[in-house]
Amino acid sequence: MKHLVKTLSVALLITFSMGSMANDRGAILGPTTIIKAVLGQEVVSDYPGPFKGLITHDVYDTTREYVLIPKGSVVHGKVLVIGNVNEIINARVGYTINSVIRPDGTVIDMSKDAAVDHKGVSGIKDKVDRHFWAQFSGVIAYALIGAEATGTSSGGLDGSYDYGDEARRNTLDQFQPIAAKYLNVVPTITIRSGMPFNIFVEFPKKIEPYESIYDDFL
Predict the structure, then answer these.
(1) What is the full per-residue pLDDT of the chain (218 aa) written as tens digits?
(2) Which of 17, 131, 157, 158 is spaced 20 to 30 A from 118 at the CA atom?
(3) Is residue 10 part of a domain?
(4) Could you give the number of structural domains in the chain?
């Protein structure tokens, strides 16, 4: 019995010592750690800006003895517009993570880490509106205006137009760029609230522990 009491006392002493060391030095959040979260609001690619999310699982240090980021912590991020050669068929919203805010108010900088979906792909996708009708209408309008402008581009020896006057020509010149914009319409991507996403930790971080896994046993 005395031996058991002595063993428990030593174990408790080691636990308290480790807790003190962790508070002094901070515990390590290792690289390649995957932090799971969900969106706390709806985001739309046409209106980039800040967004809020929530951590869904406790995040541990490399020894798995300390909780560094508890579930329920708030994610502060920003939605970005993805521009690339396939922008017209893009189905993903880009986003970055600025920080994670724990319930105790501690702010953890995550600006150097990556935001990925559940498969590890950058960006996140959900509902996509490709505006096919607007694009089709733009093609028709652009073709009609282009044909009309071509018809009015030549005249007789006196310089008069075949179909209309200078005012008509100016009207065509004004509407042609507007119609052309419909040819470059890009998809609108909506990510609904509650959609899961991941934060991929790229660099190790020294973080003051939120709690020890032994706290429930003390």
Answers:
(1) 544 444 444 344 434 444 444 445 589 999 999 999 999 999 888 888 899 999 999 999 999 999 999 999 999 999 887 666 566 667 788 889 999 999 999 999 999 999 888 888 888 888 887 655 655 565 555 555 555 555 544 454 455 545 455 555 665 565 556 555 555 677 888 889 999 999 999 999 999 999 998 877 66
(2) 131
(3) no
(4) 2
Q: Which two tokens stand for residue 162?
A: 């075949």
Q: What is the pTM of this model?
A: 0.65
Same domain, 111 and 143: no
What residues make up the domain containing 162?
A: 132-184
The phi, psi pair for 136, rounded to 5°, reads -65, -45
Amino acid 30 reads G
Q: Is residue 199 part of a domain?
A: yes
